[in-house]
Amino acid sequence: MAGVSTPIAERPVRWGIVGPGRIAESVAPDFAHVDGAELVAVASRSQQRAQAFADRHGIARAYGGYGGILGDDEVDALYIATPHPQHEAIALASIAAGKAVLVEKTFTATLAGAQRVVDLARQEQVFAMEAMWTRFQPVLVKIRELVAEGAIGEVRQVQADLGVDRPYDPSDRLFDLAQGGGAMLDLGVYVVSIAQHFLGEPTSVSVSGSLAPTGADREAGLLLGYEDGRAAALLMSLRNPTPGAARLHGTKGWIEIHPRFHHPKSFTLGRTGAEPETFRLPPLGVGYSHELIEVNECLRAGRTESAVMPLADTLTVQRILNGACEQLGVFHREDERVAV
Prior knowledge:
- 49% of the residues are buried.
- By secondary structure, the chain is of the alpha/beta class.
- Helix 5 runs antiparallel to helix 9 and helix 7 crosses helix 9.
- The protein is globular and about 60 Å long.
- It has an eight-stranded mixed β-sheet, with helices on one face. A six-stranded parallel β-sheet has the order 3-2-1-4-5-6, with helices on both faces.
- The protein starts with 12 loop residues before the first strand and ends in a 13-residue tail after the last helix.
- It contains nine helices and 14 strands.
C-alpha cells in the first residue's frame, strides 16, 4: 500500500476506525486479543468525538472528518462503523485510497450501493469484507465442521429469530429511515445471513410485517423458499423481545444455537438415534476479535476476499433484505451528503 515499505506479512496490521459509535466502543477493546494488529487511528465527523474515543482506547491519532485517516499512510485497514447509508461513500473512498475495509453490517443501505463497493474492491484488488462477526465465532466454526462432515445430513430447514423491545422514538436511529433505520437492516441481517450461509440463495422471499409511524419497518417475518423444497423461517422485531435462537434441521439430525445466536457461546447437536450433545465454545474477548483475526490473516496472505464471508454472500444477503423491505413499502437510500 502507498507509503508502506515493509511488507504487511512482516509487521503488524495497522487499523483505523471510522465512526466511533456504540458498536465501535465494543469492537475497540477486542483488538487486544488479536496478535499482529494495532489500532492506531480513529475518525469522526466531530474532532471532539474522535479525540474522546482515542483517549478512552489509547489510540494515537484522532481525525475530525474522514480525509485525514484516508490519507494516513500508517493505516492499512479501516473498520467502518457509521450508520448504514454512509457505508458506501466511505468504503468507496477507502478502497480508492488503497485501504482494506471491514464494513459493519448491514454492508450498505441498498443493493446498488453494495454492488458498487464490491465492484470497486474487485477492480482495485483491495480487500473488503462485511463485518458479520457471527460467522467467525468458535461456535459457528465448529458447526460448519459438523455440517461438512455430515453430522446432521443435508440441511433442509433453518429457523432463526432476533427481536428487542425498543420503545418507539422517531428521533432514534432505529426508526429513522434517513439513517437506515428499521428491523430489517439492523436485526434481519443476522437471521438472513445465517440462513444464506447454510442454505444459499433462495428462489423466493415472502414477508409479513408492520411499519413504525416514520415508515421504518418495525417487525417482520420472512419465509425463504428454495426450488427443491428447502426453507428458512426468520423473525425480527423492534417491537418485542425474542429468545434469539437459531436451528438447523437436517436429514439426520439438528443443531440448536443457543441464545443469542448471533454471538453464541454454546450449541446442542442432536443426531438421529443418539442423545443430544452440548458444546461450549466461548469467544475471545467480546467476540469481535475473530473477524479481526480473519481480516489480518487475509491481508497477510494477499487475499482480497474472505472465504468464510465472501462478497458474493454479502450481495445475496443485501438482495434479500432490500427486496423484503420493498415488499413492505420501505425504500432505503444511500447518504449522498457524506464528505470524504
